[in-house]
């Protein structure tokens, strides 16, 4: 029986690297991201199903859930950095923070809720991609870090409430991605880890299926 994974934010960065890694291992993939053109190119490369859209849109979440009547792996990778340059909390726009919470916390929970029946049928797994900013006090990273801390606690409780599933909240470490470049500059980001290396470690995690919990891949 072929395994099926649903990956958000799959058109670039870690999401793209993980999609490629799982495709090499023979997984069926349903991929989503906001950029239709980039996503379609990735889907054509990997023989995957592409469903472009915004994970904060309830109608899009419903479309994704209908595409996976049985699901082995949900990867909540889509994320937003928020305001850049990264501001201190004293001047962080509350409206911008609400939008960040919508993308980084509410949307992953909505997708978990929508796909739980499919995941339960296959005793599947959930990977929520988090960050060391969830636990570290890094100036400027308060808005983003707070959303990731909330996602970690949602994951922690989900693991307790759904013992039939494997739930991991995964800190991938610094990767050479557009998001990191937006935060720290292209020169510094260029020295970070290749997302493909992190994706390989994440595939090993999913394959070996250890007990759920917080996982740091670097």
From TrEMBL:
Keyword hit for Transmembrane helix: no
Alphabetical keyword list: Oxidoreductase
Record-linked SUPFAM superfamilies: NAD(P)-binding Rossmann-fold domains
Pfam families in UniProt = adh_short
Keyword Oxidoreductase in annotation: yes
**Domain of life the protein comes from:** Bacteria
Q: What Gene Ontology cellular component terms go with this record?
A: membrane
Output one GO MF annotation.
Answer: oxidoreductase activity
Instruction: List residues traversing the bilayer.
Output: none
State the family it belongs to: Belongs to the short-chain dehydrogenases/reductases (SDR) family.
Kindly provide the name given to this protein in its UniProt entry.
SDR family oxidoreductase
Species of origin: Nonomuraea montanisoli
């Amino acid at each position: 029986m072929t395994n099926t994974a649903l990956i958000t934010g799959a058109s670039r960065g870690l999401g793209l690297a993980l999609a490629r890694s799982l495709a090499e291992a023979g997984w069926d993939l349903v991929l989503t991201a906001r950029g239709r053109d980039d996503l379609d190119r990735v889907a054509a490369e990997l023989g995957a199903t592409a469903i472009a859209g915004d994970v904060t849109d309830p109608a899009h979440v419903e479309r994704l859930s209908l595409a996976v009547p049985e699901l082995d792996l949900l990867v909540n990778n889509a994320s937003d950095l928020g305001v850049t340059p990264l501001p201190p909390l004293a001047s962080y726009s509350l409206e911008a923070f609400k939008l960040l919470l919508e993308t980084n916390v509410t949307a992953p929970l909505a997708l978990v809720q929508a796909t739980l029946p499919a995941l339960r049928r296959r005793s599947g797994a959930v990977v929520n991609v988090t960050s060391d900013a969830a636990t570290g006090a890094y100036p400027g990273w308060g808005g983003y870090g707070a959303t990731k801390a909330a996602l970690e606690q949602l994951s922690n409780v989900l693991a307790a409430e759904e013992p039939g599933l494997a739930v991991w909240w995964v800190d991938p470490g610094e990767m050479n991605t557009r998001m990191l470049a937006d935060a720290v500059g292209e020169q510094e980001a260029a020295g970070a880890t290749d997302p493909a290396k992190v994706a390989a470690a994440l595939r090993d995690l999913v394959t070996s299926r250890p007990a759920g919990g917080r996982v740091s891949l670097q």
